[in-house]
Structures are given as structure tokens and as C-alpha cells.
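Box 3.1 A note on notation
Throughout this textbook, protein chains are presented in two layers. The first layer is the amino acid sequence; the second is a C-alpha cell string describing backbone geometry. Keep the layers aligned when reading.
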Amino acid sequence: MRQQLLDITEIGPPSLDNFISSGNEEVLYTLRNLVAGNQQDRFYYLWGKTGSGKSHLLQAVADAFSEQQCNSRYIDCNQDEPNFNPGTDCIVIDNVERLDDAAQIRLFNLYNHLRDNKHGIFLASGTKPPAQLDLRQDLTTRLGWGLVYQVHELTDEKKIEVMQDYAIRCGFELPLEICHYLLKYEQRNLSSLIRLVHALDQLSLTRQRPITLPLLRELL
């Protein structure tokens, strides 16, 4: 298990290879088949708490299709002004619960266009199952038509295990109190936690000081 964790916690862009699937084996298997061209469906919806890894998976799928020379687009509704282009081979829409009324209508029309034309992959995510989203009912109905998966957040114990294994690979031991502090006060998604551990290691080397809670507080 340790070697497996070490292999997939490198700092880098999100990919299906560096997503830790603990509790999410089925959705990862489905998405691997999707990018390999063995998809069961063309419409997918992932839901789960903030920090569960939904954005990681969506960006990974979008990038995988782009690497295959497909016209793929990732849209984060928290940051982007949604422009739903019906000519996209794979459209990936993160945080759909953030869509305003006008954007919801455009997404509804896009979904129908893709379904009628029998071309294009549609992958979306939100913090709740489709039926519980505070969106237009006709849109939430569409989002529930395809394959729907819950993405489960890693347990704190698993996150600590991954952080400490990453530290060992970098050549140091990460005190348990550092892990608990990060989980309590910082963003809890795994990629952010690993980046903070990496930054802490770099600061320790620069300052020639051991990794301690006071050093972490300086970093933060």
C-alpha cells in the first residue's frame, strides 16, 4: 500500500493516475473507461462535498480528452462565465449549483442538443445529487438522466497517511501534530495539503530548521 501511495502523490496537474481512489473505486473505473473510449454512457454527473476530489476528476477527464486531440473544455462555474459551446467533443462543467438563471437555460439547451445529435461527452459536478440542487427542475431532471456517482471524501486518517508517506518520499518525517493542524485550519482537499507539505519541506531546507509547528505557522 505504501508504495502505491508514494507513486500517486507527486505534485502535478490532476490526472486519473494521481487520484487516490479509496472509497471511489467504481467512479474512477468508470472514468478510465470513458477516456479509453469504452464509455457506458455519454452523460455523467458527480456529486460530493467540497474537497472530495470532484474537481480533480473533472479536470483529469478534460485533460485526457485534450491529449487525445479532442475538443475538450473544462468550465468552473465558481470562476468562469459559462460559455456552453455545442461543438465541443467533451464538455466538463464543475460546480453547477453556481449557475445563474440564464446559464441554467443555456446548459439545459446544450444538454438537449448533445442528446439529440448523439455526439459529445457531458460531465458535470455539484455538491448535491441532481434532485436536491437548487436549480431549474427541468435541468436537474436532465442531470439525473445519465450515470450519477457520489464522490466520497477521504477520511482524515487516509489523508494523514498520504501526507506522511509523501514526506517520507521527500526524505523527512512529518509530525502528526502538523497533519492535525493542516486538517483543522487549512483547505482539506488532498492536493492543497500535499502542496503545503511540499512548501514546508522547502522552507525547512532553506532555513536549515527542523519541521515543527512554529515553522508551519511561519509558512502560513
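The longest helix spans residues 190-207. The chain has two domains: 21-150, 156-219.
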